[in-house]
Amino acid sequence: MPGIALVRKPGPRIAEGIVTHIERRPVDHERAAVQHDAYVAALAAAGWRPVYVPRADDLPDAPFVEDTVVVSGRLAVLTRPGAPERRPEVESVARVVRELGLNSVRIAPPGTLDGGDVLQVGPTVYVGRSARTNDDGITQLTALLPEREVVPVGLGGVLHLKSAVTALPDGTFIGDPARADLPGMLVPEEEPGAHVVPLGGDRLLLAASAPKTAAMLEKRGYLVTRVDISEYERLEGCVTCLSVLVPD
User: What is the bridge-based pairing of β-strands 103-106 and 75-78?
Assistant: First the structure.
């Protein structure tokens, strides 16, 4: 399954990134840069070829590249982030996906859609109704993906759908059932354990802040790579936020 991993290095203003559901805490830019390099190295070690979107040092949230594009097959849906100050992040991503040969389409006003609200599991695309993604954005995404089943998901008290739940390679949801309206959810041992990135086969990427969840998943037969993303967690980020994986 490995292919391309879209990523973007953090800029010096990363500490100014938006926080919504947590208290603002200091963020060390230099440490964030080191953590980002290690994150990208973990993807590369799993066979994903990093492709860097140009730096956007004037846009604090730019390393959270997941929110700017949703990739389904060879189609790249360029989003319209719900936070207006994040919308300038999309243009540089648009140029990169075109250079990669993907077909691109856009979410148009008045729709809003953040990629962090989009969870793809097999033929189904789950989309969180959040403060960043509205019903018009979900309707547009549904029309743009006629071959997929798009399922809206109610959320409570979280920034994005993937802030509450992700999915294991076998399709099992892992997350907080009190935050997302999805059935049959495996509950992680720690909150960051709700965020997994399937890397292909039985390999998973997980935050180092969820060691008990990592052990639980290893007992279930998964090969877990742990990465320290503590500076991004201070900004409500998680392992899914920092990349967009485009399978070959």
Answer: parallel
Is pLDDT above 90 for 1? Answer: no
Task: Please name every residue paired with 200 in a beta bridge, in sequence order, or none if there are none.
Answer: 203
Give CA–CA dist 157/196, Å, rounded. 20
| Exposure b/e, 49-85, CB count within 10 A at least 16 = b | eebebeebeebbbbbbbbbbbbbbeeebbbbbbbeee
Q: What digits encode the pLDDT tens for the residues 34-56?
A: 999 999 999 999 999 999 999 99
Catalytic residue among 36, 160, 195, 238: 160
Q: Is 37 exposed, middle or buried (0-12, 13-18, 19+ CB in 10 A)?
A: exposed
Is 238 considered catalytic here?
no
d(CA 4, CA 100): 9
Q: How many CB atoms lie within 10 A of CB 221?
A: 8
Dihedrals phi, psi of 61, to nearest 5 degrees: -90, 5
As separate numbers, helices (DSSP H) first and strands (DSSP E) second, the chain gives: 5, 14
Query: What is the Cα–Cα distance from 78 to 76, expressed in whole angstroms?
Result: 6
Q: Determine the average pLDDT of the residues in 97-124.
A: 98
- 3-247: CATH homologous superfamily? L-arginine/glycine Amidinotransferase; Chain A (3.75.10.10)
Domain spans of the chain, in order of start: 3-247
The active-site residue, picked from 36, 195, 238, 241, is 241
**What's this model's pTM, rounded to 2 decimal places?**
0.97
What distance in Å separates the CA atoms of residue 90 and residue 127, rounded to the nearest whole number? 19
Active site residue 160: yes
Distance CA 66, CA 39 (A): 14
pLDDT band at 24; cut points 50, 70, 90:
confident
